[in-house]
Amino acid sequence: xxxxxxxxxxxxxxxxxxxxxxxxxxxxxxxxxxxxxxxxxxxxxxxxxxxxxxxxxxxxxxxxxxxxxxxxxxxxxxxxxxxxxxxxxxxxxxxxxxxxxxxxxxxxxxxxxxxxxxxxxxxxxxxxxxxxxxxxxxx
Length: 139
Prior knowledge:
Blueprint: H1 3-18, E1 20-28, E2 40-49, E3 54-63, E4 69-77, E5 89-90, E6 95-103, E7 108-117, E8 122-131
Antiparallel strand pairs: 1-2, 2-3, 3-6, 4-5, 4-7, 7-8
């Protein structure tokens, strides 16, 4: 093996261990929402935690509407790995975050919830996926 092949292989292995994947979501509006301007922007960023053998997904939910909202009926996949520390209150114009840890052998996750707007309407099944297209290997 030549020097250049050794360096290239080392870089490929390092990239697999430290790989990070970011999936940005477009504003999401539920189909039954009476006003299409009520948007919650969802983004998920996955980073490899090689020592733990897990992907760490940081979910960010931004309320782009001028009315505060609460979120409830939160579901995620994989179901056995729930999202931790995701606040239920989303003030107008603000972003809240939560964290989900999934096995390194899992390559997708979903966040689904209902948004209750303070002025009355409810947006059901607001959701966004993260599709991971990298490897995360335990150290």
